[in-house]
Each structure stands twice: as C-alpha cells, then as structure tokens.
Design brief:
Number of helices of chain A: 0
Oligomer: heterodimer
Structural class of chain A: mainly beta
Shape of chain B: globular
Largest interface: A-B, 24 and 25 residues
Largest sheet of chain A: 6 strands, mixed
Strand content of chain A: over 45%
Order of helices and strands of chain A: EEEEEEEEEEE
Order of helices and strands of chain B: EEEEEEEEEEE
Radius of gyration of chain A: 13 Å
Structural class of chain B: mainly beta
Radius of gyration of chain B: 13 Å
Number of strands of chain A: 11
Shape of chain A: globular
Strand content of chain B: over 45%
Distance between the termini of chain B: 37 Å
Number of strands of chain B: 11
Helix content of chain B: under 10%
Chain lengths: ~110, ~120
C-alpha cells in the first residue's frame, strides 16, 4: 500500500541554521508533492507545491527538492527563526491526496 | 485569501447523539473535504465532495455521513456518536474539480473542531 514517512522525532535546530525535513514515500509515483505548516490548534497552511518534473522550488527562505528516483522530498528552511517552530506536513497524490504524519520542528533561540 | 470557517472550535457531545459539524468556504471552490486528525495517525480523509450533492468516501467513512446542498457548505454528520470518534475534525477546500480530489492545487483548511464524545 502507499506509504509516506516523515521523521516522527522532533527536530531541534539552532536559530540561524538551516532546518532540513525529509519526506519519503513508497509504492507510489505522485505527480505532485506539497508541503504544509501546522501550528498547535490550527489547521494546516499550504506552503509549496512541486511537480514531478521539477527538481527544486524556492519561496523566500523555503526550498523544496523532489527526487522521484529516491522517492524523497527535502524541505529546507534557511536562516531559521523561532517563529518557524511548527509541525510540517508533506502531502502527495495523483488522484487522491495523502498526508504524512508530520515532523515537529523547534527552532531554539 | 480563502477563508474556510468551521462552525465550532470545541464541541462536547454524548454517546448516541447525532452530531453535525458545519464548514463554509468563501472562494467558490468545487472540492471540499473532511478529515480527522489524531496523534500518531496524522490526517485521515473521511469524505470528500467535488460538486454540489456529490460525495465520495475517503479512507475512514464508517460512522459518518456528509451533506453538500450548496457549493459553499459541506456538513459532516456523526449518525450516532461514539467515544472513538473523539478527535480533531478538519474541513478543507480546493479549487480544481476532479473525482479523486486532485492534488495539483493546495488545500485550504479551517482551524478545526475539537470534538469530545463522552
């Protein structure tokens, strides 16, 4: 069956460093991959979408890569700030979207 | 900006009650979705709708039904609430129509309803 894996352990990063989150998937060949941010008690908020024929996408301090051979996406936040602390979800799908369970990111001041 | 509004942030109901969760979106989106989110299980799709009066089962539809009488409103109904339906419920909408939901457009979420069944 289709499976998405994100680091279940929280990620602690020092302020100013680059945070890198991983999303791996199996038994799937998605045409698109999305990343969302979720704050406690709130709904997820869309950040970036990358297509299978795009290797990399950037938006301000965010960068997403999509490697269809490795079946992996990396999500980078450069010059991280405490306000970036949240849970980050990857989502992929062709016909129906499937969400990963998310990785909690803590940016330490 | 797209606004997805869920009628209640917190709700407490008793087992056996019929529970209605309401969701309204203001951007004329064709697709609407209901998810539940539980610790360790992530977001799970309950039902979605790609048009008025149309609905499709998601991954965990048992014990739930939905109603979409108007394009902007999508209701989730717990026919006879049980304690295992205690959860955070999230509604979302997206722009592109498609029977599968379509993933090439972002989903816009409401802030959720935290439902407790006692």
């Amino acid at each position: 069956s289709q499976k998405i894996e994100q680091n279940s352990e929280a990620l602690n990063i020092q302020e100013g460093k680059t945070a890198t989150l991983t999303c791996n998937y199996t038994n799937y060949s998605p045409a698109y991959l999305q990343w969302y941010r979720q704050d406690p008690g709130r709904g997820p908020v869309f950040l970036l979408l990358i297509r299978e024929n795009e290797k990399e996408k950037r938006k301000e301090r965010l960068k997403v890569t999509f490697d269809t051979t490795l079946k992996q996406s990396l999500f980078h936040i450069t010059a991280s700030q405490p306000a970036d602390s949240a849970t980050y979800l990857c989502a992929l799908g062709d016909d129906k979207i499937i969400f990963g369970k998310g990785t909690r990111l803590h940016i330490l001041p | 900006d797209v606004k997805v509004t869920q009628s209640s942030r917190y709700l407490v109901k008793r087992t056996g009650e019929k529970v209605f969760l309401e969701c309204v979106q203001d951007m004329d989106h064709e697709n609407m979705f209901w998810y539940r989110q539980d610790p360790g299980l992530g977001l799970r799709l309950i039902y979605f709708s790609y048009d008025v009066k149309m609905k499709e089962k998601g991954d965990i539809p048992e014990g739930y039904s939905v109603s979409r009488e108007k394009k902007e409103r999508f209701s989730l109904i717990l026919e006879s609430a049980s304690t295992n339906q205690t959860s955070m419920y999230l509604c979302a909408s997206s722009l592109i129509p498609g029977q599968g939901g379509g993933s090439n457009q972002p989903q816009h979420f409401g802030d959720g309803t935290r439902l407790s069944i006692l």
